[in-house]
Amino acid sequence: MPLSSVLGASTLIKPGVVTSSTRPAVPYEGQLIFETDTDRIAAYNGSAWVTQNGLQLIKTQTIGTAVSSVTVSDVFSATYDNYLITISGGVASGNVDLKLTLGSTATGYYYALVYATYNSASAAAVVAQNTTSWAYTGSGSSDTLSFHVNVDNPFAAKRTVARAVLAQPYTTGAGGGFGGYLADNSSYTGFTITTSSGTMTGGTIRVYGYANN
Questions:
Q1: How many angstroms separate the most distant Cα atoms in the chain?
Q2: CATH topology of domain 3-51
Q3: I need a surface site. Which of 9, 51, 131, 186 has the fewest CB within 10 A?
Q4: At residue 98, what are phi and psi to the nearest 5 degrees?
Q5: Other CB atoms within 10 A of residue 166 CB
Q6: In the predicted model, is pLDDT for residue 136 greater than 80?
Q7: Is pLDDT of 173 > 90?
């Protein structure tokens, strides 16, 4: 009979499961731990703990059916400074653009979009000052949704910056680069994605944090 059946699994010591403040005091080279407060794996390289680098998945959320907006909560924190938000799969009710807002703030968004339509080599631009959202951060059609946005410093008490690549997935659409900022110093923990018109159905929103070390 396994020991866990006698004592109960919750009473057993879990080797390597710690927090960032309760790492082993005398680690050995190659030792692996999992930090429950940061959800990261760390390895001891003989002189220091080295945590996972790159993108860390924070949250996955499915878009509903025929909705014009979806709110994603509790994703920004002090753990990360910069984030990536993506959408995979899903469809829109027609050719739409997707807008991004932080928290409940509906003012102070500044942005510029430089783009070219697929049937023209001429470049054009759209600019906005002190508007209600970051428009043109993504797009959609009856075939797919497209959203790939980097957000810098949303949790910090400083101006938040957003950067995106626009790729409208229809023949009369356009592709280009987007950059903008929110003119306040508020701390945000979530965001909302909204359609410019019509609705969206299905698809998965994923939020990643860029590891700081």
A1: 74
A2: Seminal Fluid Protein  PDC-109 (Domain B) (2.10.10)
A3: 9
A4: -110, 135
A5: 23
A6: yes
A7: yes
